[in-house]
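[Protein data]
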Amino acid sequence: MTTLPFRDLRIDAHGRLVLTDLNGDAHVAVTPVRAHPISAPDEGLSLVGSHGHELAWVERLSALPEGPRRLLEAELAAREFHPTLKRLISVNTFATPSTWRIETDRGEVDFVLKSEEDIRRLEEGRLLITSTHGVQLQVADRWALDKHSKKLLERFL
């Protein structure tokens, strides 16, 4: 059994996350922040208060009891929006900025790639692409994309 770094965690009537620390003080509007959201999403989670200060540290999300773990997973899912790029349909130019038409796991969308530096290469063929609006798109395995998508993508890598 893992010792909790807090006394209680709940959602209040306004839908805000409330953490009761080990001293019994309640903190309203707590925000969970992953230390390594892409490379190690289960490891290292900071619970940050409304004033921006860390209130508690969770070593491993999966080690928490079911209740607090589910609350935190739901909060994180609401905050972390990372659609997965399934197919690159077209690009308007091979120079940046360029407008990309893509198919994601949430439907087709157009977005603007500001520069090649907004494509982050991760291990095992994964990519993280950031649009000009700050939306981060994931590519689970760039080698598994269809031939047309790979051909377009290679022009920017």
